[in-house]
């Protein structure tokens, strides 16, 4: 592939995403930044040595995908994933920036010292740019500002057991203190919004059946937590709050009202809640297990409606892998298996397959998967858009081509995924990071991702 590794001076094509439309245009790049955008009726007149100018033809040219919710798990649980494999898979899926979650690495990213351990582990291994979330755990209030000064984009907290003992959950008072501590810093507090509300005893249910697991994590658990977020958000008016991986559509009216009243709340959902269905999950198919759970198709339709109306801001992967022995689809039951879904490599295609069928267009998809996550991360002036002075982070993809998810194309470490065998529409052809073609036609260039810290 003649362009692989090249630092481009320009990209042109018939369908370049400028503003909110796909138009014929040339993007001029210098030192990794977009310096000029030339719209043209058709054809191209860029003067340069030709091998530094890429012709995308009729393929889509749009901002690289920005995935603000990925569990890389290194150091400490590198056998679950790791920086090298997660970012390589991401690059093949058109992702140019990842934000790493503060768990399930050991140590978790809950102090500056622990963040430094993570930075050391990540150094030199990242195919994409990589930013970091910190974590709020009991007693961590004094640790937050030093992590902000080092460059974390914000903090994640759990209102229910996180699944790992080294990242304990917090109560309302502890969240209140954390919100006070980050006030005025611009950092965002992200909530795993489920609480243990006591309405979910399923003693006699068959743990092999998905319906039993679903009944054990009812909508009320999310609703109860989101009511707490609502109270805290209204109390701490100017501190940004974010709800990760929304599954229940029944919370949309609460969130909609918060937005209407002008509070800085944002919400994400994930490919699995938007495309998978309990009816396709047979006994012990634990590759479908995640928390909160995948709910029914009426709920799913309402989530898409939430995206349409803007109550849900963005779609991110929540890539949360583990080793095969913790999932064992067909062997372990739903109560025993680890909860988490792996999909970082396929987000664009999974979402496009459904979004197109539901009548959404590519500019809208780009807003959900690039622009809004970049804004959440406080990077909306450098990433998530094709515009002057932005990083030339770009994905070039064919929106008509289909492919099947098979083991041999999966690049993340543990290949268990509910998407196996599925036919997806939308194939990534090349990924460009700060002007350099770092992925093209299944080939990778040198590692050139940066750690987005100070
Ligand atoms: Zn997660």
Automatic annotation (TrEMBL):
Residues 60-438 form the Amidohydrolase-related domain. InterPro entries: Allantoinase, Amidohydro-rel, DHOase/Allantoinase_Hydrolase, Dihydroorotase_CS, DNase_TatD-rel_CS, Metal-dep_hydrolase_composite, Metal_Hydrolase. Its cofactor is Zn(2+). Keywords: Hydrolase, Metal-binding, Zinc. Gene3D superfamilies: Metal-dependent hydrolases. Pathway: Nitrogen metabolism; (S)-allantoin degradation; allantoate from (S)-allantoin: step 1/1. The keyword Metal-binding applies. Its EC number is 3.5.2.5. It is an enzyme of class 3 (hydrolase). PROSITE patterns: DIHYDROOROTASE_1 (PS00482), TATD_1 (PS01137). GO terms for molecular function: allantoinase activity; cobalt ion binding; zinc ion binding. Pfam families: Amidohydro_1 (PF01979). It catalyses: (S)-allantoin + H2O = allantoate + H(+). Belongs to the metallo-dependent hydrolases superfamily. Allantoinase family. NCBIfam families: allantoinase. This is allantoinase. It comes from Orchesella cincta (Springtail).
């Amino acid at each position: 592939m003649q362009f692989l590794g090249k630092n481009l001076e320009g990209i042109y094509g018939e369908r370049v995403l400028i503003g909110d439309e796909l138009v014929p245009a040339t993007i001029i790049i210098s030192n990794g930044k977009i310096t000029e955008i030339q719209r043209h009726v058709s054809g191209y007149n860029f003067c340069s040595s030709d091998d530094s100018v890429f012709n995308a033809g009729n393929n889509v040219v749009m901002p690289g995908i920005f995935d603000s919710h990925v569990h890389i798990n290194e150091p400490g649980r590198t056998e679950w994933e790791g920086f090298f494999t997660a970012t390589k898979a991401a690059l093949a899926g058109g992702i140019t920036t990842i934000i790493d979650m503060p768990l399930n690495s050991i140590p978790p990213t809950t102090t500056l010292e622990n963040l430094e351990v993570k930075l050391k582990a990540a150094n030199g291994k990242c195919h994409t740019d990589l930013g970091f979330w910190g974590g709020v755990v009991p007693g961590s209030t004094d640790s937050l500002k030093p992590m902000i000064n080092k460059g974390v984009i914000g903090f994640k907290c759990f209102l229910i057991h996180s699944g790992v003992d080294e990242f304990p959950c917090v109560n309302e008072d502890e969240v209140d203190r954390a919100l006070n501590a980050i006030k005025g810093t611009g950092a965002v507090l992200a909530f795993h919004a489920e609480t243990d509300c006591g309405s979910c005893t399923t003693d006699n249910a068959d743990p092999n059946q998905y319906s039993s697991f679903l009944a054990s994590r009812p909508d009320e658990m999310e609703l109860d937590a989101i009511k707490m977020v609502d109270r805290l958000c209204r109390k701490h008016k100017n501190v940004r709050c974010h709800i990760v991986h929304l599954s229940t559509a029944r919370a949309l009216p609460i969130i909609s009202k918060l937005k209407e009243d002008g509070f800085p709340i944002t919400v994400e959902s994930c490919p699995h809640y938007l495309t998978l269905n309990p009816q396709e999950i047979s006994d012990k198919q634990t590759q479908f297990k995640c928390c909160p759970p995948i709910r029914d198709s009426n709920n799913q339709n309402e989530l898409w409606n939430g995206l349409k109306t803007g109550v849900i801001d963005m779609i991110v992967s929540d890539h949360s892998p583990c080793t095969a022995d913790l999932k064992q689809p067909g062997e372990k039951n739903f109560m025993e298996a680890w909860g988490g879904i792996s999909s970082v490599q396929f987000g664009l295609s999974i979402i496009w397959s459904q979004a197109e069928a539901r009548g959404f267009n590519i500019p809208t998809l780009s807003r959900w998967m690039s622009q809004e996550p970049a804004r959440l991360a406080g990077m909306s002036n450098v990433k998530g858009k094709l515009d002057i002075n932005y990083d030339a982070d770009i994905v070039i993809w064919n929106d008509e081509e289909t492919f099947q998810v098979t083991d041999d194309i999966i690049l993340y470490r543990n290949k268990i995924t509910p998407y196996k065998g599925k036919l997806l529409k939308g194939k990534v052809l090349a990924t460009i990071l700060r002007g350099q073609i770092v992925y093209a036609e299944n080939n990778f260039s040198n590692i050139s991702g940066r750690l987005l810290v100070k």
